[in-house]
Specification:
6 helices, 159 residues
């Protein structure tokens, strides 16, 4: 039982740390230059993001916890942690630095990593994989928004 609790705490802590860092890095850009950007069609109002992200983070916690309970999960763990790092890096590149093209490159790597991660999760537990689909779809939408922001604001590598 203690091992299950420990694995849940690990899952929660990794995702919570990612959420905190990503939120901090995002708000640096939102508070400085984001309001000056031209945004693509279908860009959601700001109020959508604080609703969507906690839901996605909860799904990530539960999904990763399920994976941690399985045997032979090393590659799935590696992919999960890797995508968390790429997620934080995207927030830094896009929001903190305004490097939209580099953010897009990172986001494409993130999408690919999550896609492969879902396949690995599926091998371990179908529910764990299915819980990642909303995140994957949101990342595809984020890629559309990233491309739109990049294109509408000069399509330069550096702002």
């Amino acid at each position: 039982m203690m091992q299950h609790i420990f694995k849940f705490i690990v899952s929660f802590a990794l995702v919570a740390l990612t959420a905190a860092l990503s939120s901090y890095l995002s708000y640096l850009g939102i508070d400085s230059f984001y309001d000056t950007l031209q945004l693509p069609p279908f860009n959601p109002p700001r109020m959508v993001f604080p609703i969507v992200w906690p839901i996605l983070y909860v799904l990530m916690i539960v999904s990763f916890y399920i994976v941690l309970l399985r045997q032979n999960n090393q590659s799935a763990i590696f992919l999960f942690i890797g995508q968390l790092v790429l997620h934080i890096l995207w927030c830094y590149l896009f929001f903190t630095k305004g490097l939209f093209a580099f953010g897009l490159v990172d986001l494409v790597l993130l999408i690919w990593t999550v896609f492969v991660m879902i396949k690995k999760f599926h091998d371990l537990d179908h529910t764990a994989a299915y819980l990642q689909y909303p995140y994957f779809l949101w990342l595809l939408f984020a890629a559309y928004l990233n491309v739109g922001v990049w294109y509408l604001n000069g399509a330069a590598f550096i702002q």
